[in-house]
Amino acid sequence: MVHNAAWRRSFLCVLTLYLGFASPPCKARIYTNHWAVRIAGGPGVADRIADKYGYRNMGQIGDLKDHYHFFHSRTIKRSTLSSRGHHSFISMEPKVEWIEQQVVKRRIKRDYKPVPPLSQTSPAHSNVAQNNIFYNDAKWSSMWYIHCNDDVHNCQSDMNIMGAWKRGYTGKDVVVTILDDGIERNHPDLFQNYDPQASYDVNSNDLDPMPRYDATNENKHGTRCAGEVAAAANNSHCIVGIAYNARIGGVRMLDGDVTDMVEAKSLNLNPQHIDIYSASWGPDDDGKTVDGPASLARQAFENGIRM
């Protein structure tokens, strides 16, 4: 009876997927060959334990003390089953306080929604000259969200950006990093403000956040976000950033499996240097998905607040 019941549940799950419906019981967790481990005693102890059980210690997880990124090359890269190999005995080591195999999290980039263009005779456009601010950037006159202020009616944004600029708030001495699919550090609108200390490639584990280019050109979201924040002003290129004097960096972390550890590494990059971490992405924004930071990402937030 038990066997028959289990068979019927499996059959219904397969049938439901075949019909094109994503039933919650059929959504399997995807386990990776990466682990997060908390080990007391320092990097030397972590290296020794990693080597003993066939792992490679990829280093500390951001700024989280005693938390290490372990990688196991002989474990399946993506599996619906958690690992049960010989290396799982690592949890019995006295210095290992906690270990967790990393699971893939679904993350969606947040993009803009097109809005009807403002008329060229609208108050927003005629108000540009009245503000006595003009830049030679090609898209300057089309940046309606900057030209809006309290004197403009029927405006789609009322952030009073020019008012802030006139008071001297242009992002100077502020460091921002964009957690996304990478940024083009050599982009003509970004290279002047680019900050390598606010940049990292978590997906490839190196210092260069340049996007991976392919035929779909999908990895452009981070560069767009960086431009909105800190594109240089008055350089005859493209747009003007909201904080055009800010230092801007990027973390490439969405172009691969996003796990709790990937989010924590990104949120904990060089926290004594970076002022603002911008993340224009998250779980499915479908009105029924509820998800948030897991244990490591929560620790990264707490670490940023306390330290």
Q: In words, what does this structure look like?
A:
- The strands form 3 sheets. Strands 1, 2, 3, 4 and 5 form a 5-stranded antiparallel beta sheet that branches. Strands 8-9-7-10 form a 4-stranded parallel beta sheet, covered by helices on one side.
- It is elongated, with a radius of gyration of 24 Å.
- Mean pLDDT is 86; it is low at 9-26 and 119-130.
- It has 8 helices and 11 strands.
- The relative contact order is 0.15.
- The protein starts with a helix and ends with a helix.
- The protein has 307 residues and is α/β, with parallel strands linked by helices.
- α7 packs parallel to α8.
- Residues 1-28 form the signal peptide.
- It holds the Pfam family Peptidase_S8.
- This is Proprotein convertase subtilisin/kexin type 5.
- Residues 34-110 form the Peptidase S8 pro-domain domain.
- Belongs to the peptidase S8 family.
